[in-house]
Design a protein that fits this description.
This protein is an alpha/beta fold. An eight-stranded mixed beta sheet has the order 3-2-1-4-5-6-7-8. Strands 15-16-17-18-19-20-21 form a seven-stranded mixed beta sheet, sandwiched between helices. It has a three-stranded antiparallel beta sheet with strand order 9-10-11. The chain has 30 helices and 23 strands. Helix 1 crosses helix 2 and helix 7 runs antiparallel to helix 14.
Length: about 800
């Protein structure tokens, strides 16, 4: 990295008022346009607890809001689900442009999401402008129309409150949101929108320049075009290209052509055509076109997933791919070269890149060429499209699912090495453009773009630091780019299985280091030790993983190994220890908090159930899924469900509540979100749901501090848990018998379900009997050991390990 003073020239810092998290600023919102995108934006606002009115054209006289209502109904059928919990749909009010414009007077934020035509958008703005209050901000979700073009058509008094707010599809799940100011927008407006989008909606915000495609699509679309161009040059089959450009190079499984099918080939054609018409001075202009064969597919109506055929189609059980040479479909068959396959398995990107360029093979050469053309493009366009290189890399991570952005890859491989390769490629005419590299790129002292001071910004010829927006103070954890220093985690204790470190506020934080944060004997030892250390030296203990998942549960490989060696006594010891760990979390002298993101399954879910408080990211998926491998929850999970059923029942009949929890566990259901887990009772009403995963530690710390400062006393062990008893067991077994006779479950399903019923109902005792938590834990342990010793359960464990899905035997 060249040594240059970080003078901040060209950067204007200003004090920002309040937290600017946006929740208090945007209490009522409206979405204009009930198409697929507009309806999904409305759904995500509803997920966040924001009142939203969804507008559409008026329908017939019987139901003027039928258009918007149909869009809301359709939300329940879309996959992946736009609504975090079906009940969120009730927060969306349906409206139309003729009868309901008066309701805009109550809105703080209005999001326009209609068709990508500037004339239609401007007509709509003229229609709604008289109804917008002075405080209201108007934003457009356009993905390509220049913001300045739309701003010029607005009344003067609205221009200061107008900008672009580009959601990526699907809005609930895609982390990237591009915020595109127009030249006359007030600074406070964009600051408030950034805070709102970050904390309330959970987005990763990039402030993009008002250029064609903004940041994400400009780079993402070109990356796909460069792959298509170089694949054509190399004569590679389309399915082979997808094998080469997926997870092996840090991109999603959909790779290139499958991604085009998901997006829609007609949409791709529209986006690429718009770019070609807009970026007329782009050195890569001649490449802003789809292959002729793809245009032919569009003409045929084979536009991808939504039409049933595109680059790929499914014929019965056979997946077929289009062959441009024959202009017909054939079965998917193309295979990776053996050595290329081994290269793509390498985890070290530097070793992977070096292996590719050393291996003389068309598949390796294709990947090398595609990378170089992408680097060339990004270097040339950086000044135009983004404030700094960080924004490009994060846009590709957040918007396209890449594990590393283009500048990160370049910096990892070696900046000067890539510069030499690019110069050679440009000089001999192999590059997609002959434009020379910018001077800042070829600086002989440069080693990269990201470092401890910030990220390179050609506009200011200096390293641009991270945003000083107050909302980021809540992000005690954030994405670290290659070259940036990792956050300090003062170690209290660590080994191969766990890392216990201290955070401000006398907080102990425990991380698991196992694959997928699975729970094995070493992790259990770490949990027990962490509780002891926290009791002596800290005010609270938080379990927080550095990245999702929270935990996929017990280490099945360890259990299978012990089972095959006939060491059932050691399996029983593991069950004793996981129960001890769960109970230690529940009854520790200091508060315990689970900070959950992603999957929390089996034993991981049991740990969550036993903590005093749970702080869950919206995209948390909780489930007691043990029946899927032929056993039952035995880390205190059944005991905890029985406790919660009793609490839900208050003084009434406990059985209906037991039956509800039984059904969820017996079906091995996994919640579709943290909000659904709360509805199930796996999360308590007081457990916060956080929309931005990087704020988990901040919220968990404050929850822990509040518990500690309010005079925390751990819950007492229970000896008086009211259970459903023998009558409840008989009732649940009757349901299982009916399912068995109807062919809905197998004999072993019946056996597993019966054991679960016996435990969750408290055993063969009188209805309403009161039992101890130790009694329920013993029932769990005995049932688990009985089931794990059966051949059918062993088959299920083996199948899960080999195929990653349950076996119904």
């Amino acid at each position: 990295m060249p040594s240059r003073p970080n003078t901040g020239a060209g950067i204007t810092e200003r004090p920002m008022r309040g937290t600017l998290d946006g929740r208090r600023h945007f209490r009522r919102t409206a979405v204009l346009g009930a198409g697929v995108m507009g309806a999904q934006i409305a759904a995500h606002l509803a997920n966040a607890g924001i009142a939203v009115t969804l507008f559409e054209l008026p329908a017939d006289e019987k139901d003027r809001n039928a258009g918007a209502r149909a869009a809301v109904t359709a939300l329940g059928k879309l996959k992946p689900a736009p609504l975090a919990e079906p009940g969120m749909a009730k927060r969306i009010r349906c409206a139309n442009y003729e009868d309901d414009l008066e309701s805009l007077r109550d809105c703080d934020l209005v999001i326009e999401a209609i068709a990508e035509r500037s004339d239609l958008k401007l007509d709509l703005y003229a229609r709604v402008a008289p109804y917008l209050p002075e405080r209201a901000i108007l934003v457009t979700n356009t993905s390509g129309i220049p913001i300045r073009t739309l701003a010029e058509g607005l009344p003067a008094e609205l221009r200061g409150r107008f900008c672009g707010m580009h959601f990526f599809n699907p809005p609930r799940y895609m982390h990237l949101l591009e915020l595109i100011p127009n030249e006359g927008v007030e600074a406070d407006v964009t600051d408030r929108l950034e805070g709102f989008a970050t904390t309330v909606l959970g987005k990763g915000v990039i402030r993009a320049r008002d250029t064609a495609g903004f940041v994400g699509n400009r780079v993402g679309v070109f990356s796909m075009l460069s792959v298509m161009y170089n694949a054509g040059q190399a004569g590679l089959d389309l399915d082979l290209v997808d094998r080469l450009t997926g997870p092996g190079i840090g991109r999603p499984k959909s790779a290139t052509y499958r991604t085009a099918d998901v997006v829609g080939l007609d949409v791709m054609a529209h986006v690429v055509g718009n770019l070609a018409a807009t970026v007329t001075d782009d050195p890569w202009l001649s490449h802003y076109r789809l292959p002729d064969w793809m245009n032919t597919l569009v003409d045929r109506g084979a536009v991808g997933q939504k039409s049933g055929a595109g680059v790929y189609r499914k014929q019965g059980r056979v997946i077929e791919v289009f062959d441009p040479e024959t202009m017909a479909y054939r079965p998917v068959r193309s295979a990776l070269d053996d050595q290329v396959r081994e290269i793509l398995k390498l985890r070290d990107p530097l070793a992977k890149y070096h292996a590719l360029i050393r291996y003389d093979h068309p598949q390796a050469a294709f990947l090398h060429a595609s990378f170089l053309d992408l680097f060339h493009f990004c270097a040339w366009h950086l000044r135009e499209i983004a404030a700094c290189a960080r924004d490009v890399d994060l846009a590709m991570r957040w918007g396209f699912g890449w594990t590393m952005g283009p500048f990160e890859i370049w910096q990892t491989v070696g900046w000067q090495r890539i510069v030499r390769e690019l110069r050679d490629r440009i000089e001999i005419g192999d590059a997609m453009s002959d434009v020379p590299l910018p001077d800042w790129v070829t600086d002989p002292e440069r080693t990269g773009v990201h470092d401890g001071e910030g990220s390179w910004s050609p506009a200011i010829s200096a390293q641009k630091p991270r945003s000083s927006h107050p909302v980021y103070r809540r992000q005690e954890v954030h994405e670290i780019l290659i070259g940036e220093p990792k956050p300090q985690k003062p170690t209290v204790y660590e080994d191969e299985a766990v890392h216990l470190w201290s955070a401000p506020g006398k907080l102990a934080v425990l991380e698991f280091r196992t694959r997928m944060h699975a729970i094995d004997g070493a992790v259990l030892s770490g949990v027990l030790r962490a509780v002891e250390v926290a009791e002596d030296d800290f005010n609270a203990l938080v379990i927080l993983q550095p990245e999702a998942p929270f935990s996929v549960g017990a280490n099945l490989e360890q259990i299978l190994g012990l089972l095959d060696e006939g060491r059932q006594d050691e399996i029983a010891s593991l069950i004793d220890r996981i129960q001890a760990a769960s109970m230690a979390l529940k009854h520790a002298p200091v508060p315990t908090v689970a900070a959950v993101n992603g999957l929390a399954l089996g034993g991981g879910c049991e740990f969550v159930l036993h903590c005093d408080r749970v702080v869950a990211a919206l995209e948390s998926y909780l489930g007691l899924v043990e029946v899927g491998v032929g056993v039952i929850p035995a880390g205190g999970g059944c005991k905890e469900l029985a406790l919660r059923a009793e609490s839900d029942a208050r003084e009434g009949d406990v059985f209906p509540h037991v039956a509800r929890y039984f059904e969820i566990a017996a079906m091995a259901r996994v919640s579709s979100s943290a909000l659904e887990a709360r509805n199930w009772g796996y999360l308590r009403p007081a457990d916060p749901v956080v929309f931005h995963q990087n704020e988990l530690l901040h919220v968990a710390r404050h929850q822990a501090e509040a518990l500690y400062e309010s005079g925390y006393v751990p819950p007492a062990r229970r000896a008086d848990i009211r259970v459903a008893g023998a009558e409840g067991i008989a009732n649940l077994k009757t349901r299982l018998v009916n399912m068995l006779r109807g062919g809905f479950i197998s004999e072993h399903d019946y056996e597993v379900g019966s054991r679960l019923a016996e435990v969750i109902c408290g055993g063969e005792v009188d209805p309403g009997s009161r039992v101890s938590d130790s009694w329920l834990l013993r029932l769990e342990r005995d049932a688990f050991m009985t089931l794990v010793s059966t051949g059918k359960t062993r088959e299920r464990i083996v199948h899960m390990l080999e195929h990653g899905k349950p076996l119904r035997n």
